[in-house]
Amino acid sequence: MTRPPGLPRLQLRTPADVLAAVPYLFGFHPIDSVVLLGLRDTALVFHARCDLPAAKAPSGEVLALGEYLTQVLLAQTANAVLLVAFGPAERATPVLLATAQTMEAAGLAVLDQLRATDGRYWSHLCPDPSCCPADGVAYDVEGTVVAAEATLAGCVALPDRETLVRTLGPPEGNALAAILRETRAATARLGERPAGESRHTGQATLDTAVNRYLSGGRLADDELAWLTVLFQDGQQLRDDGLLAIEAAPVQSALAAAHLALWTDVVRRCDPAVVVGPAVLLAYACWRVGDGVRSGVAVERALATDPHCPAATLMAELLRRGVPPVVADRPGGDPKPRPRRRRRRERRRTRTTR
Fold first, then answer.
1. In Å, how far are 32, 69, 86, 230 from 160, measured between CA atoms?
2. 15-161, which class in CATH?
3. 163-175: b or e for each residue (b if 16 or more CB lie within 10 Å)?
4. By the 8 A CB rule, do 48 and 77 touch?
5. pTM (2 d.p.)
6. 3-class SS at 114?
7. Where do the CATH 3.40.140 domains begin and end in the chain?
8. Residue 227 has what pLDDT?
């Protein structure tokens, strides 16, 4: 995706700078991965990561990965690319070569092909042994200016993707028992309300929750449980949440409040009702260019409901690398907000009476 929120503009002058920047772009240190950094002239406009195929994978599998990455990059505004593979040569080198060949054939300039493992890197495009010796060049991510600047800006690079996934995992122990108790109470409370009242209640509850995080606060367990139970009472509140996220300017305090709200809800809610909040978190992350966390949120939603249409659509947007700016254009890819047209139609009907 695009540059994630909070990451400052970094000057990448050397291969070591590129290798130092990658963990902060993704939020974790890639392992056994191929990474592409798409550039428009000298500006980074897109980044993506895939797992490396297994050692001695069929050539068709390697070529298919290269073609997939090429198609994803062609959907962006990039005209050049830096390719980086993290892992042993027998797994990384075939992917680098196949992907570079496919991208060059598609008209993309491949600026470098780097392979890194065990604290050393190799450039496949540098023929100078004094610059890139056969045994590689030692590098230390933590000792670079790039890492210092990213850390100073509050960015974090976790040890691996599994660690990042756990940051959006469900509650456990006493926290789980407490939220299950509050969710049961909220469900009983909803059942006592007159039919049709939840629509207005849900919108008011959503507005209150967003404003709470906008001011630096946090929902209590009973408030969080009530919000998630209202999500279970119909699709409208989820659609309202999607529209509210879309209305928040990217990189604004309001966009950050939506991210904080839905991150907190996904981490703390009853796991059985996580689907709606996880879809909203995925959408909020995607809107600001954080494709990694968006993907993790989608995985949580689909693990609970594999047939959820909104989560399936978000997964497809991420798989194809569709940037939010494309989905915002007329004729671009649809966003998971099926009720918007219906609401517009109702407004048009009222004005023509």
1. 10, 21, 12, 35
2. alpha beta
3. ebbeebebbeeee
4. no
5. 0.84
6. strand
7. 15-161
8. 94
